[in-house]
Amino acid sequence: MMPELPVVDHHAHLREDRASLEAATQFARLGGTHLFLATQNYLNRGPDSIEDYRAQFETTLSIARTVERETGVRVFPVLAPYPVDMLGQAERHSLAAAVEIQVGALELAGRYVRERKAVALGEVGRAHFPVSPEATAAQAEVLAAAIRVARESGCPLVLHTEDLDEHGYEELSALAAKGSLPLNHVVKHYARTYLPAVQRHGVIPSFLAKRETVVAALSDPSTWFLETDYLADPERPGAVLALDTVPRRVEWLRRTQPELVERLRIPFVEAPRKVYGLELTVPKRP
Fold this sequence. Notes:
Layout: E1 8-13, H1 18-29, E2 34-38, H2 50-71, E3 74-79, H3 85-92, H4 95-114, E4 120-125, H5 133-153, E5 157-160, H6 166-178, E6 186-191, E7 204-208, H7 211-217, E8 225-227, E9 230-231, H8 245-256, H9 265-276
Parallel strand pairs: 1-2, 1-9, 2-3, 3-4, 4-5, 5-6, 6-7, 7-8
């Protein structure tokens, strides 16, 4: 028999619309129990002020409450200004103004964490594509501020970056050490490629739940998560992976290699405990 484990998607985005609620309902129907909900821009323009981000974060909290009420899935909000926002802000204002907006939004997100309305800062970091040297320096300044706010708030930092090789993981590890942020609070979101723990230098990966990546990660005894990075975007339905992917991976494993299902205790129980201090259990069924 399959062990009674929670089924956790560590990173997804939803909107205040029927498609998002239907996706969450399907996630629950197939066995999903817990969801880390990362904020996103809900406007038809980029955020341009702290008040824009306050409205965005409140929308994320409202979505979390709705999903919990309608589906029974436990939702954990993750809040921060998206690093790519800074590029548009710099074009509309100036790079210095964009940095000021980003740091102010990080401070705001930190307050939400300290008030226990959110569990982490994220996504933070840098653009996943090349930018100018000036923008690169500004991104580094904002990331240093994010590390500081995460340390002061006692919470994890969920990082958005380019795809990382060992050198990239080592760089993030060094930045965390410089900012006195514990490595168990440093999470690389959207880890598309499996690298063994020795090459990750203490940074915790949140692996994209593609079948081949799940298979590779199952033999890894260190700390890791699974995610879909589901994006409720009407122009890109189902991007990146469908929200029901993680429970489907569990069911696939149960059917094909049931002896390995217990390995999912790492991303579903042990990683939330080590990184977030959360004790996730299977909710009682009515």
